[in-house]
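Input set for joint prediction.
Command: fold jointly, output tokens.
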Amino acid sequence: MPKRSYGQYCGLARALDVVGARWSLLIVRELLVGPARYGELLAGLPGIATNLLAARLKELEEVGVVQRTLDTGRNGVAYVLTPWGRELRDTVASLVTWSTPLMISGPQGDIFHGRWLVVALDALLRDRRSKKPMTIGLSADDAMVAVHADKTGTRVELCGDNQPNTVFRGEPAIVLGLASGMLSVEQAVAAGELRGREADLAAVFESR
Amino acid sequence: MPKRSYGQYCGLARALDVVGARWSLLIVRELLVGPARYGELLAGLPGIATNLLAARLKELEEVGVVQRTLDTGRNGVAYVLTPWGRELRDTVASLVTWSTPLMISGPQGDIFHGRWLVVALDALLRDRRSKKPMTIGLSADDAMVAVHADKTGTRVELCGDNQPNTVFRGEPAIVLGLASGMLSVEQAVAAGELRGREADLAAVFESR
DNA sequence: CCGCATCCTCATGGATACTG
DNA sequence: CAGTATCCATGAGGATGCGG
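tokens >
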């Protein structure tokens, strides 16, 4: 909701009037993982200026995408997505899926947070009806894992090499509890599968 | 592809690095309907500055979303989406679907082009597996039409009132050739259903 | 005329300092 | 910790110029 509206009676244009501003969808990405404090958002959005985060949060709140809530337990406020805001999960997922050609080149010096895997894996694994076989690679600690998914199901393999972008090989194994269908955002967060290892995870990509 | 990259190894961030700039997705919207000349894009994107359109087209071409082609027939260049660019149809559709709460208030002075209906109707009617019943309203010339879609199928009704945002009523009729499943982008364009009446169509919205 | 390139102004974004 | 305030850099909007 930059003051700059496109002024077009078109769904796409109006949607972009609301979430098309720089950083807006990335804030939504952070909140798709779960409620977050201001400081956590700052940490999860490396590169954002603090005044911009404050401004975006205010805008997103005014238009009904984000809501400020009381953070019971720790005292203070936490930001949460409204039900309508949560529906942006589809949009975020489609962009993540679309971006795979941009991801296969590896990090290239870009910052990585394991937290982002929650959204990325959710997007890539969510609709297995699209039968396209895919391989998702990720490295955690000193191990590298490949998740192969096709119409026959999902297999997880341990790879010998730790470098991102490696050609996968190695013997099958079950690692990190990754299994077909378990990685809805809510499940992954609830299971705590990723929480503790966020700092260790290093790369995700899909080859197709 | 603003020079400003988010610098994050995250699918969403990299996607937004490519199509997150202002006007980029609206250009994609125009090209989803079909190839277009520079002047046609200018006309279809009211409010864009001509230098910005030129810049965006160059960026989108460099990253492989758009391609310049020879416009055989009329001599000159035409802009087309690459296969990868066409895959943004999913993203655009999800944003259009998400935007419906922003559309029910009506045009409110915003510009409207019937051409945009091709993308909007494609998005709203494309996946009838999501069984949510919906009503799409549109007015053409002096008639107002309601398309009701639910799990039982699609009905088209003619409404008595010409004003956008009217409560639908009236006797059933088939108007404009709107029928379930006929409105893939390609079909609508090929059938010329909308081409000739673009200037007449006035509103589309969904109530849910 | 179409397809841009240039120039100028101002809104928006980015970095950092500061405050309740 | 959770933001504001400030200042500078950058990108958008609008008018206009210009070559093919």
